[in-house]
Amino acid sequence: MGGLKNEAVGATLPTIPPRAQHARAEGRVIEWADLDKKKYFVYGPAFNVLTNGLLYPTKLVKVRMQAQSGAHGRYRSVFHAFQSIVRTEGPASLYKGFMVNSFSVISSQLYITTYEVMRAWGRARGQTEAVCNLAAGIGASVVQQSVAVPIDVVSQRMMVDRRRDGATSTRSVIRGIVTREGVAGFWKGSAASLLTLAPSSGIFWASYGQMRRIQISWQGPETVPSFGSTLAQQAAASFLAGCFSAACTNPLDIVKTRIQVNQEVGKPITMASALRTLVREEGMWLLTKGLQARMLHMSINSVILMTVYETVKFHSVLPTVDL
Q: pTM for the complete prediction?
């Protein structure tokens, strides 16, 4: 079977329908109805597993920095956190909780599919692209959280364990949650997650769409960019959108992390109490606590995931689609 050669990994990719090539070059959006769903649901999860493995250490560092108390905690910067974790706990500690977190591939696929379906629904009813992107991003996050929160709670408990021997096993964390907090403990911080990730998702997609429109408008009607040029533009748009979304919602993300990693029995933490404690402990530092790590994680995450997302759609277009 013919195909394009991916020089980075040496793999042969499926032949891309000519109309999809034109759509990609001209910056047009490939819609949900244009996709071969069998290809889409094979390529999507495979790429999600790969990107999660690449980005996991940045997520662990973000959680560690947000979970520490006081303006002058154990970790002074992202680089210092990486250095300290590797030195005191070993390189493998950067992947604590990774196996549990790998189940997030399910919620990730659910998220992007919900986004595509909701966006298509809105476009079919005449809504503007900006409104569709914002609403679909928020809606997709709401659906995703039903699956993602229990995975986050368990994996984050393992992330904050600083023992070199990695004594905190998945089984012991799950048993501890059930014993101390009951089954409801697995959805600890679900309200905070929803109030953090839903706006973050909506802001990201709306920003990404707006930046792509600006980029396309700069090209002019006669310009037909190459595949590589379009991919680079999408990467730049997703990087900026990820940074913007991270900065806008960082305080809420800190509250969410504090609630989910709390293990004190008989001292339940609400969003209001967590926020009061943070304001008392951190002051204005609250606005930027862990922001460097979060922007690093979200910007790199956004670039990789959006490049993968656009590429998966690109290679999943039905050959009969008239774009």
A: 0.69
